[in-house]
Amino acid sequence: MTKKTEYTDDYEDKTLYLPGPTEVHEDVIDAMAQPIFGHRTERMTDLYTTIVEDTKEFLGTEQEVIVLTASGTEFWEATTLNLVDDSILVPTSGAFSERQANVAERLGKDVDRIGYGWGDAVKPEDIRDALEPGDYDAVGVVMNETSTGVRNPVEEIGEVLGDYPDTYFVVDAISCLGGDRIVPDEHNIDCIFTSTQKAFAMPPGLAVCTVSDDAYERELSKDSSSWYGGFQRCLDYYDRKGQTHSTPAIPIMLAYREQMKRMLEEGHEARDERHREMAEYTRDWARDSFDLFAEEGYESRTVTCIENTQGIDVAETVARVSEEHGMLFSSGYGDISEDSFRIGHMGEHTVESIKELTDAIEDVAGV
Ligand SMILES: Cc1ncc(COP(=O)(O)O)c(C=O)c1O
């Protein structure tokens, strides 16, 4: 049984280099500290319509956008319930893609996996081979496999999906959207979703999903779709009232409003470029001192997974960098926790701030 460990109000703030949650700008934190207002007021309509329309503008999409009080996991469930009658194809190459497959199984769907080794990327031709004889309602792909630092080629997979218009393309871009530019409309993507605590650099608590016209239509004809994450319910309510169907996390939406202003000011392309620079710096550093876990040519732009070729004590290095330098990065995921470690270079970070971390790791690990 878990025992209560009293929260003390006495914790040291750390600079976050996790693959999410990540650093949040202080203006965005401050934006949350306001008296709560009613969720059926004009003020709420102003807030919600602003964040939804600004998100469309930032992403450069004509698709509808839902901002829902939930973590991103909600959209694994909702997209499956809304779009999959019987079967879904899920290429699995790490912990999160495996979890996506598992969610669909739990919901009673037939799940066909294409199993790759951890660190390998999904290959578009394998998707084509599986779709040729298969009759899938949807293909679900994790764009950025956070457990391995692999960036899957969703643009090319989308091209394949273009030849299968009856199969919906669902993309989990939870650990990269906002830092790795992709326009869903240009790649036959029906739904792409993220969580606010990742490359959007907002507090956790909201999930964001785009919805193509086809995906919306499809859900209209089904009565087994998700209630909470039902596209119809969310989007029709937005259409009629400019609000959410249930009480939202208002403080986090205030933070969203503030951060989205900053994101629009920087622009999606400039943000993408800044993330590329951070990723390149981190990769160069990793290659000099260690090696990369991800298959060459498929390295993530927001999370680098570093293979521990020097046999450092990863858990101890993480702990000491936290204690001695006040910076928090991540060990490897699950079974590869000591064989690798991960640096989240997303959101508010810059090459300079990432360099501060790599200097700290060098200092502690002596590499
Ligand atoms: C690729 C991916 N998918 C899904 C999730 C789950 O996201 P959340 O914790 O916001 O539900 C994560 C979390 O790290 C992730 O990295």
TrEMBL record:
Task: Show where the Aminotransferase class V domain sits.
Answer: 38-330
Keyword check for Transferase, yes or no. Answer: yes
Task: Family membership, please give it.
Answer: Belongs to the class-V pyridoxal-phosphate-dependent aminotransferase family.
Q: What is this protein called?
A: Alanine--glyoxylate aminotransferase family protein
For this UniProt record, give its keywords in alphabetical order, as a comma-separated list.
Aminotransferase, Pyridoxal phosphate, Transferase
InterPro entries with a match to the protein in the record: Aminotrans_V_dom, Aminotrans_V_PyrdxlP_BS, PyrdxlP-dep_Trfase, PyrdxlP-dep_Trfase_major, PyrdxlP-dep_Trfase_small, SP_NH2Trfase/AEP_transaminase
Mention one GO biological process in which this protein takes part, according to its record.
glycine biosynthetic process, by transamination of glyoxylate
This entry's Gene Ontology molecular function terms read: alanine-glyoxylate transaminase activity; L-serine-pyruvate transaminase activity
Q: Which cofactor does it need?
A: pyridoxal 5'-phosphate
Please name the PROSITE patterns in this protein's record.
Answer: AA_TRANSFER_CLASS_5
The answer on whether this UniProt entry bears the keyword Transferase reads yes
